[in-house]
Amino acid sequence: MRDAAPTTIYLKDYAPFGYCVDNVELEFTLHPTATRVKSRIAFRPNPETTDRTFFLHGEQLKLISAAIDGAPVTPEVTDTGLTCDAPDAPFTFEAEVEINPQANTALEGLYMSNGMYCTQCEAEGFRKITYYPDRPDVMGVFTVRITAPQDEMPVLLSNGNPEGMGSDAPDTHYAVWHDPWPKPAYLFALVAGHLIAHEDSFTTASGKHVKLAIWVRPGDEHKCAFAMEALKKSMTWDEEVYGREYDLDEFNIVAVDDFNMGAMENKGLNIFNSSAVLASPETATDLNFERIEAIVAHEYFHNWTGNRITCRDWFQLCLKEGLTVYRDAQFTADMRSAPVKRINDVIDLRGRQFPEDQGPLSHPVRPESFQEINNFYTATVYEKGAEVIGMLKRLVGDEAYKKALDLYFDRHDGQACTIEDWLKVFEDTTGRDLSQFKRWYSQAGTPRLSVAEAWEDGTYTLTFTQTLPPSATTPDPQPQVIPINIGLLSPNGDEVVPTTMLEMTEATQSFTFDGLATKPTPSILRDFSAPVVLDREADSAERAFLLAHDTDPFNRWEAGRALARATLSAMATEGATPETAYLDGIAAVLRDDSLDPAYRALMLGMPGQSDLAGSIAQAGMTPDPMKIWQASETLKQALAQHCQDLLPRLYAESHVDAPYRPDAEQSGKRALASAALSLLSRLDGGAQAAQQYQKADNMTLQLSALGCLLSAEAGEEELQAFYDQWQADRLVIDKWFMLQIVHADPTKAAAVTQTLTEHPDFNWKNPNRFRSTLGAFAMNHAGFHAADGSGYGLMTDWLIKLDPVNPQTTARMCSAFQTWKRYDGDRQGLMRDAMERIMGQQGLSRDTGEMIGRILNA
Ligand code: B3K
Ligand code: ZN
Predict the structure, then answer these.
(1) CATH code of residue 788
(2) From 299, 383, 558, 718, the catalytic residue
(3) Is the residue at 316 inside a domain?
(4) Residue closest by Cα to atom 5 of ligand 1
(5) How many independent structural domains does the chain possess?
(6) Of all protein residues, whose CA lies closest to atom 4 belonging to ligand 1?
(7) At which of 194, 224, 251 does a domain end?
(8) How confident is the model at residue 2 (pLDDT cuts 50, 70, 90)?
(9) 49 within domain boundaries
(10) Active-site annotation holds for 122
């Protein structure tokens, strides 16, 4: 039972704060259980409002003293903040509070991780540090002084530029940091600890010298070089592509082991989950390297899209997140392969955003209400938010996009903005009316796009119909603007109409193409030009034709995927056998050496089991997780047999002789080798995987071999050897936990997970370890959905245990239940019981309560 009725906050209720902040001076005296924070804040009446209510957020703070213009005051204090009478004129508010970083297991505010101090303030963590108007539209210039014991905490960091260090008492020292750029409190950061810097420098286009450093715990120094290179590439790219330069003397990144997410873009002092920054060839996989490059870029790009221009309120979160995800995707596409990046992003969108958009957690890209904002850092806000920007760019064109962005930075630098401000720069640049386009921000759900075709006297007509199912937040959906990229192919495979953008604005709309000699085959939604579900009743022959001939790399891959989806779904629901069109088509693509190995590796992939369950449910049937698992296994076996002559060649040819480099070329080859090995292991019981394991000199090869062995129900010895080899490396041991669960036979997955939670290294309070165990278990689709409910029970026990310790990580993992309505009555009943058990907990967090409440009340 939740303690108090939760409050819902609405976008429509936005009102500015009664005061502006000019300057903020903070003084920290660090102590593990009793840190003192003195604040001195210069307020002045906000000319935009006459409401002078003076309420400062504050949670879990012990107020020692408060004063206005030097005169002590006794504010009214509640567990959410303080109120006192304040003048209708400029004044200085001072306070001293005491906080307990060691007791902070929620990892929000100031907390301790492995003996170091660090902070996480987005979205509303600053209120756990001191009393403050903790809202993004209140921006101030911060000066921070940190005092700590010199031996234990030799490094003291905060935002902005350093203004010196010194000592004014024995054994203690202090550092002063000043950030000249006004910022909201959510971008505040402080780090103190025994840290080592991996240093470098960067000179900006206009000649400014910037000192760069990645700060890590001793022993991790050799794992920083790759992230540093990624940072410098990001800095150059943002100058070249967006004309954005860095604006402080220093840029610091700190690696932290206990962190609720990937990383945080605090001004001049990014804090990273160590998994998102530390990498060496021996301990990190190619995918880890690629993810690190993308996250370093993402956080760096926030310096302009998020920090220099921030959000007026948290409803506008997609303003910074959608745009920054879009920018980091452009960066990755430029650094690596654009088609491969696009395909991976669509796999991710379908895997995470579509289930969210099509289930009880569905919400618009710009939500209109929330109870706990941390629950809205979602795939919809981030990934669909980025798709919306991609569509906008397609609609206005590259030139206009660039002009609009220049105007955005010129007009709004230093401001806290809204989606209206964002769209207005596009309207002003192009003269377009974007009011219909804006529905992408306000309507929830994934539009479905159906297609009918007609052919008469050399004229080919495509008629599209868009439908958006009504939902709680969008009861009366209206047609959206959908950019549909299409190309037409003649029967011999030539492209007769190259990629053309159709701009659909009506519920049903036809587009005609004249002067064609024969009826063409359409290639629709090229490059996945809009985040919709395309309902096209195509037969296998048409899909096989596109798989062989489409000139658009995305749609060529998509044709193979559609074939896989259709055959898997027929196998899982009707007991059909694997389709030859799929097996032949994929084999033909694999034989084509002119294709990028990374692209061919993607061709060997299949839709995930949860994704298939979603398609089966959307077709009006009830997915059976065990049958879906069996169908996937059968199809992989069939593909392995069908390609048995080809696989050894692919495996051998993809071998990399050169010294390890995590670049696109080498990692693409390794991806193909590992996809081939995983099929080969089905034919040889893991013999070649065992050999690869023995010879592996990098984590990519070592881990892929171990995964193949585990899937072949072999690899006991290697699993133990892996643990013995890497016992001291937390990030590698996370992989060890995860791999065993992901590759477990679903009938054993719950037992494997249970056993691992009893392992001495299962430190459940560490979010990375919790995610690599319970999070991995939720990804073992048939294991989690075991018919006897054992999976739901195990997950529920752990969510209940974690909630009082770390509500944010618990709430995030509740999404494992979001698809419950897809399944049969028995499973629905078991999941309902599990969720009701969570809801019944005394003192359940607001985070978890909101998530389970939304899922249950669908
Ligand atoms: N802005 C942070 C996310 C903060 C999450 C707060 N629960 C990281 C990012 O998107 O770059
Ligand atoms: Zn971000």
Answers:
(1) 1.25.50.10
(2) 299
(3) no
(4) 122
(5) 3
(6) 122
(7) 194
(8) low
(9) yes
(10) no
